[in-house]
Amino acid sequence: MKKSLIALALAGTFAVPAFADAPAPTPDHTVTGNLTLATSYRFRGIDQTFGKPALQGGIDYSHSSGLYVGNWNSNVSSGAGFAEGNIEMDFYGGYKTTFGDFGVDVGALYYYYPGSNSRPLGGTNAKHLSANASGTVDNLELYVAGSWKFLTLKYSYAVKDYFDLPESNGTSYLELNGAYDLGSGWGVNAHVGHLFAKDYKYNTSTGSQKISYTDWKVGVTKDVSGWVFGLAYVGTNAKGSCNGGEFYCFTNSLNANGTTGTNSKDAGRGTGVLSVTKSF
Question: What is the pLDDT along the chain (280 residues), one digit of tens a residue?
């Protein structure tokens, strides 16, 4: 456009047509990264860092065909059920496409906790040893999601024991997410999800219970020169009373022999979470 205007000025009486720049073609291969610092890491509403900050980051590759793969990582507390472990590594891949305002996403997600030991995961808050469990804590889920504009409904299904909890194969999670752009860098988001536990149960002072629960989140974000600041409230109805020995009462540490830390917290309690994210 700029060259056309210069040519027109130099030509005098000769008219030189100006054309709009053609849109850049969509690249076949795209690689992006992200880095987040948060005051707490909540996975499906449950505290994974014992109320302490989390440093998180990942990398994603996508192809113009809709295929994608990626990796995401975060520090975690061993007391959240990952004996001797302190890092979560997620590996995923799938296919997604859009049809106007609608979208479909299908794939698989593998959770891995290097250095952890699944042997203690046999009872309440991982306090009782499981003779049948061994090896690194992990989880494999298949998922399918459908979206419409700013809403997404997603279903995840565990194809093995859910994070190595005995007899939990087939546990699933259904969630509804919304993210709306308000303009000027502002956005709002909301989430509600429910964990459908399969057969795993734990014993409390009031009897045997499943680990099923509902979680929710409401939040606001602000983009400042590519740095996205977020504030959210996260809550659940997960049973985490430490007086009653409920499952979601987590300790600050967990060893491979089943020994727990001296401090404990309700990991499903409601709390605010501050975060800042940079994508590149």
Answer: 444 433 433 344 334 444 556 667 778 999 999 999 999 999 999 999 999 999 999 999 999 999 999 999 999 999 999 999 999 999 999 999 999 999 999 999 999 999 999 877 754 444 444 444 558 999 999 999 999 999 999 999 999 999 999 889 999 999 999 999 999 999 999 999 999 999 888 877 666 788 999 999 999 999 999 999 999 999 999 999 998 889 999 999 999 888 999 999 999 999 999 999 999 9
Q: List Cβ neighbours of 16 (8 Å cut-off, separation of 6 or more).
A: 4, 7, 8
CATH of the domain at 86: 2.40.160.40
Give the total number of structural domains in the chain: 1
Please name the residue ranges forming H helices in the chain: 2-11
**Residue at 3 is within a domain:** no
215-237 b/e with 16+ CB inside 10 Å = b? bbbebebeeeeeebebebebbbe
Q: Is residue 211 within 8 Å of 46, Cβ to Cβ?
A: no
